[in-house]
Structure formats: C-alpha cells, structure tokens
Design brief:
The protein has about 450 residues and is mainly α. It has one domain (about 45-445). Helix content is about 75%, strand content about 0%. The protein contains 18 helices and no strands. It has helices at about 20-30, 45-75, 75-80, 85-95, 95-110, 120-155, 160-195, 200-210, 210-230, 235-245, 250-255, 260-270, 270-290, 305-330, 345-350, 355-380, 390-410, 415-445. Helix 16 packs antiparallel against helix 17. About 50% of the residues are buried. It is found in: Cell membrane; Membrane. It catalyses: Fe(2+)(in) = Fe(2+)(out); Co(2+)(in) = Co(2+)(out); Mn(2+)(in) = Mn(2+)(out); Ni(2+)(in) = Ni(2+)(out). GO terms for molecular function: inorganic cation transmembrane transporter activity; monoatomic cation transmembrane transporter activity. It comes from Takifugu rubripes. Keywords: Cell membrane, Ion transport, Magnesium, Membrane, Repeat, Transmembrane, Transmembrane helix, Transport.
C-alpha cells in the first residue's frame, strides 16, 4: 500500500471546477446511478432545512438538559469545594467538537465521495478512527486537567495535590468513557444515513452533539462526586482511576496505526485538538469566575445552550464546505470566488450550495433559540432571556467560511482541523458574551436574587 495523507484528495479522479460542474450537471443526471460517478448531493433549501431541523432540535434539547444538570450539580460538594471542575466543563464539552464532530465530518465526507462503499474499507476506516479518538480523548482529558489546575492556581496562589489528582482522574475518565459512547453512536448515525439516503453532512454533526453535552456532564458529575467522597478515606482511588485509563493508551495507538488515514492523524492531528482545548479552558476560567459570584451563579444553566447552538450550526457549515472542496478542488486550490480578501457578504450572499446552507442555518437560530429558552423558562430554571447567541453564530459562520478555505489552501484537511477550532471559539465567545450579558443586566438594575437561577 502506498503512503496516504489526510491532505491527499479523497477522490482519485480529476476534480471539476465550479464552471465544469455546472456544465456537466445534466450529463451526470443522465448517467444514472449505474455510472459509478459520485455526485454532490443535490438539495433544495427546504429539503436541507428539514434534514437539519430535527437533529438541530435534538441537539438543542440535549444542551438544555445539560444546562439543567449543571444547574443542579453546581451545588454538589465536589463542585463547591473544588471549583476548578468548572474550568473542565467547557474543555470536556468541547471534546464533542474536537473529536465527535470531527469524526462525523471525516466520515460524512468519506461516505459522500465513496470511500465507505467497500465493507472492508468502511470498517477499517471506522475502527481506525474510533481508536484514534480514544487516544486523543485520553491525552486531551489529561491536558485539560493540567490546564484547570494551572488556571485555578494562578489567580488563587493555592495548590492541593489531592485536588489536582482528583481533577486529573475525573477529566481522563470522563473524556474516555464519553468519547467511547458517543463514537459508537456516531458510527451508527453515519452508517444509518448512508443506508437511508440522507446527506450525513446535514445530520451527523448535530446528532453528535445532541446527547454529547448531557452524557459528558452526567459522567463528570458522577465520577468527580464519587472520587470526592473517597478523598479522605481512600485517597489512592483517584490515582488508580487515572493510571488505569492512561495505561490503555498504547493499545489504542496500536489499533489506530493499522489504518493509514488514522495513522497519519495519530502523528499530525494533535495541533487542533490541543489548541482547541486551551481555548475552551479559557472559557472555563471565565465560567469559574462568573459562577463564583453569588449574584451571577445562574449563568450555568445557559452555558451549554449558548455554546452548543453555535458549535452545532457552524459544524454543519464546516462539514458541507469541506465536502464541497473535496469534490471540486485539489488541496491547495480554492474556487475563484473565495480568492482574495475575505468579506462577510461572501458567506451569506449568493446562490451557491454553501451560501444557501449559511442562509438556512442563520434563519434557524432565532426560532431555535426561542424554543430552547422557553423550555428553560417552563422548567423554571431561568430568569433572563438576554443572550448573545445570534451574534455568536453570525461570527462563527463567517469565521468558518474563511478558516475552511484557508486550511484547504494551505494543504490541511478541514474535516480534521477546522471543527475543533470553531467549536472552541464558540465556547469562548458564548461564555464571554453570556457573562457580559449577565453583568450588563446586573449593572442596569436587574438585581433579583434569581437572575438566571
């Protein structure tokens, strides 16, 4: 087998330029399904919106549920006495963008370009990517704990080894277990989408996030509280838990190295996930300091919703643009309309498939946001409705357009590199803007004791 790189074209045939594609659309339709030519999925804006709507709502209600869980567990002993756990929250929730959504984007592109038509190639690709994801989850979970310890120690000047070990154990165990569960769900979604004829680019990434936040938060709360109860009587338990999951890493590395695509990412795919973890941890520090203010503690119920909606929508757009580039451009080459300086109108103004998807996604923000906030209100877990979600999504869609094309121009596969950065930026922007909104409400006189609580 020859060498394989993630930046190599996923289609062996010569790509068509946008003009050539338009000129051959009718010919492609005449060739029919027996021609062996893989065509870009053709969708009307309505069909696109309908395919995106259900998983988007599922993902949104998943983030609402995660916010409800976080609102409850913030009063547990582990969260009250080891507040650095709040720094872990955005970093661990961000793993769905670093790992699950990235996996979904890679496999969606593989489905659309025909790389999963062969059963042997399909399962080799799936197993290699799942093993790679477990390696990355373990390492990123450990580094997230280190970042939480450092970020918690710098402003306070206090360091407790027992708390640091508990943070490390909770983070690594949560990252490993949540990643494994979500990876299995993700593979089922991709395979199911292929069999039912649904474009996985539209549904895979939001479904990856639908229960991701809830599963991750529930596991983090359960493990951290359990280890906290053992802290005095069985202090060695935290160390054993951390060591167990870390010692599994070499096994996953051996498995992931069996497939050339995952082997390449095993060596070169660390930059985006680690950088994204650092960005999310900064958002976690903002959350930690905001929650520490008794007047603003209610922010936690909104954090997963605000961060999640932006990340879910921008991941769909990133995945679609990446698939489009894999079809029509060789790495290093971009369509003519994306050359030159970037300007925001380029993202939303136009009739191309990527313009239409950006328009559909931005139109989903307001009604989706109203539904999710009203759900929180009905559950009597929220007081304020002033949130920055529209601004956050608008910025993220623009950044996605620029970032995906820039990465492709530089020879990097945006399926593997763009989504971690985008979802991490969503966490940072969402948390920062939400904290500013809560501070603004307090300043202008909305000083009820239940602000957001």
């Amino acid at each position: 087998m020859g060498t394989y790189s993630e930046t190599d074209p996923m289609l062996g045939e010569r790509r068509l330029s946008a003009d050539e594609t338009d000129g051959r659309e009718e010919d492609d339709e005449d060739e029919g399904p027996g021609s062996g030519v893989h065509n870009m999925p053709k969708e009307s804006p309505l069909a696109m919106a309908l395919q995106i709507l259900v998983p988007f709502l599922l993902a949104g209600f998943g983030t609402v549920s995660a916010g409800m869980v976080l609102d409850v567990v913030q009063h547990w002993g582990a969260f009250q006495y080891i507040t650095e756990i709040f720094i872990l929250v955005p970093a661990l929730l961000g793993l769905k963008g670093n790992l699950e959504m990235t996996l979904a984007s890679r496999l969606s592109t593989a489905v659309n370009v025909g790389k999963m038509d062969s059963p042997i190639e399909k399962w080799n690709l799936i197993i290699g990517n799942l093993a790679l994801k477990q390696v990355q989850a373990t390492v990123v979970g450990f580094l997230a704990a280190v970042a939480a310890v450092v970020l918690g120690w710098i402003p306070e000047g206090k360091f407790q080894m027992s708390h640091a070990v508990l943070l490390c154990s909770s983070s690594v165990a949560t990252a490993f277990i949540a990643s494994l569960l979500q990876g299995i769900i993700m593979v089922g979604v991709i395979v199911g989408s292929k069999k039912t004829g649904i474009n996985p680019d539209n549904v895979a990434t939001p479904i990856a996030a639908s229960f991701g936040d809830l599963i991750t938060l529930a596991i983090l709360a359960w493990i951290s509280q359990g280890l906290y109860k053992c802290l005095d009587t069985y202090p060695y338990v935290s160390s054993l838990v951390c060591a167990f999951f870390m010692l599994l890493t070499p096994l996953w590395m051996v498995i992931s190295s069996k497939h050339p695509a995952s082997r390449t990412l095993l060596y070169s795919g660390w930059e985006p996930v680690i950088t994204a973890m650092v960005i999310s941890s900064i958002g976690g520090l903002i959350l930690d300091k905001t929650v520490s203010d008794p007047n603003l503690a209610g922010i936690v119920v909104y954090t997963p919703v605000i961060n999640g909606i932006g990340g879910n929508l921008v991941a769909i757009q990133s995945s679609r643009i990446s698939t489009h580039l894999h079809f029509h451009c060789a790495p290093g080459e971009v369509p003519d309309e994306t050359k030159g300086c970037y300007y925001p109108c380029r993202t939303f103004c136009g009739t191309g498939a990527n313009h239409r998807s950006a328009q559909v996604l931005i139109l989903l923000v307001v009604p989706g946001h109203v539904i999710f906030l009203y759900t929180i209100h009905l559950m009597k877990s929220g007081h304020t409705t002033l949130t920055p979600i529209f601004m956050s999504v608008l910025l993220l869609l623009c950044i996605a357009d620029w970032m995906v094309h820039s990465m492709w121009r530089s020879g990097k596969d945006p399926d593997s590199f763009s989504i971690p950065y985008l979802t991490a930026l969503g966490d940072l922007l969402g948390t920062a803007l939400l904290a500013l909104s809560f501070h603004f409400l307090w300043v202008i006189g909305d000083r009820d004791s239940d602000v957001g609580d």
